[in-house]
Amino acid sequence: MALTPPRTLTPSKVSAFTNCPQAFRFSVIERRPEPPSPHAVKGTLVHAALEGLFWDHQPPRRTEAAAHHELGLAWAALQSDPEFVELALDRAAAEEFVADARQLVGNYFRLEDPNTVRTVGVELGVEINQDGMRLRGIIDRLDIGPDGSLTVIDYKTGRAPSVRYEQSRLGGVQTYALLCQRVLGRVPDEVRLLHLREPVVIAAVASPQTIRGQAQRTTAVWGAIARACASEDFRPKTGPLCNYCHFKPVCPAFGGSG
Question: Which residues have C-beta within 8 Å of that of residue 16, sequence separation ≥ 6?
Fold first, then answer.
């Protein structure tokens, strides 16, 4: 019996399917339970702090102290979050967790001065219908320059990729550029990944050509997901990341029964 495809496609789902269709089936199609990721929960915490910095503080009050104040508020709210609770961190681990988040927030100020930024959207939800596909995403920040140019900003709390993999990592933020173009009627001039760990900025131009390419890519992935659901054929893609996959014990590539 054919499987039911997901109702929507997001940049993270595109990445998940292209990384490993089998893991995508377990997680997105079958919705098998997964333990919370400490890295993902920490990313949520840092994003909340930077969101508060831009929502609740106007220039020139967007200071590092203000950002750490917002981190404290986000940390207090996180204590009752089910995913954080499930991590079951002891006191020492929790202190290390929030200290690392504090370092990431501080690193943000090594990348740009938020008091010089004019933001027109924070945590901006956008969605389009394209060829029967609902494509949606949440843009961390949408900035407008003095000349009216638009820049899509995406915060990253994990390690920055090597030069070899930079372009593939830009796929998600280029999808946000596509969504902006369809929703706002304008192609953003630039997309930027702000990697807070190093810290480093990875930027690329968004153009009508890159938008068309991203539209074709998302349509192709959506079609591949539909075909895989119809045939119930999700091929595992093995590699180094398999060692970190929660589904490895049940994966057919490693002798599991699926």
Answer: 23, 24, 27, 28
Rounded to an integer, the average pLDDT of 176-199 is 95
pLDDT in tens, 153-171: 999 999 988 877 777 778 8
Structure tokens at 195: 């990697």
pLDDT at 1: 63
Q: Which pLDDT score, from 0 to 100, does residue 35 have? A: 94
Rounded distance between C-alpha atoms, residue 246 and residue 80, angstroms: 24
Contact criterion met (CB below 8 Å) for 159 and 117: no
Between the CA of residue 247 and those of 32, 35, 51, 88, what are the distances in Å? 9, 11, 33, 21
Please give the Cα distance from 256 to 236 (Å, whole number).
Answer: 12
Cα(34)–Cα(246) distance, rounded to whole angstroms? 7
Say if CB 194 and CB 201 are below 8 A apart: yes
149 half-sphere exposure, CB direction, 13 A CA radius: 12
pLDDT category, 82, cuts 50, 70, 90? very high
| DSSP per position, 230-243 | HHT------SGGGG
pLDDT band at 59 (very low <50, low <70, confident <90, very high): very high
Cα distance between residue 65 and residue 60, in whole Å: 12
155, containing H or E segment: strand 150-156
